[in-house]
Amino acid sequence: MMQDRSKRKRPNLLVTGTPGTGKTTTSSALAEATQLRHINVGELVKDKNLHDGWDDEVESYLINEDLVCDELEDVMEEGGNIVDYHGCDFFPERWFDHVVVLQTDNSVLYDRLSKRGYTGSKLSNNIECEIFQVLLEEAKESYPENIVVAMKSHTIEDISRNVAALTDWVRNWNTQS
């Protein structure tokens, strides 16, 4: 497993968290600061039809995890990627050197998701997901615990602080591995 990592010249990061926690904002800013490639899995699924149709109940595409992994395999082996997605348990463990779980206070998250037009069960399911720290648990079960970090993402200041800390991590990556 360590062999895969040592072949890469640049690290791969996964930025995950409940919808509305700032994954895309954080990933875009981090990509700009580090010159890593930002891969928004939700956009990739739409653009390349890596899904099995639309689910009216959850108001999103039914992602085909195998197609997504096949699509990403080569670029992940190269390294230098920031993968942005609200799930994390289906990606191969060997792909990531650092897994960031963004977390947001529920009152802040509720407002963000409401502004996005989330209502009913879609809104309450995502808030519950955050309350029970579902994604942090999923990340800890899917990856070595020493590469998983939770970061608070309530405000623009938090996002800036997170991007600065992650930029330092990326710059120091070669000395760590």
Automatic annotation (TrEMBL):
Basic residues bias (residue ranges): 1-11
Residues reported to bind ATP: G20, G22, K23, T24, T25, R116
One CC-aspect GO term: cytoplasm
Sequence segments annotated as region (LID): 115-125
Low complexity bias (residue ranges): 16-26
Region described as Disordered: 1-27
Protein family according to the UniProt entry: Belongs to the adenylate kinase family. AK6 subfamily.
Known role: Broad-specificity nucleoside monophosphate (NMP) kinase that catalyzes the reversible transfer of the terminal phosphate group between nucleoside triphosphates and monophosphates. Has also ATPase activity. Involved in the late cytoplasmic maturation steps of the 40S ribosomal particles, specifically 18S rRNA maturation. While NMP activity is not required for ribosome maturation, ATPase activity is. Associates transiently with small ribosomal subunit protein uS11. ATP hydrolysis breaks the interaction with uS11.
Official protein name in the record: Adenylate kinase isoenzyme 6 homolog
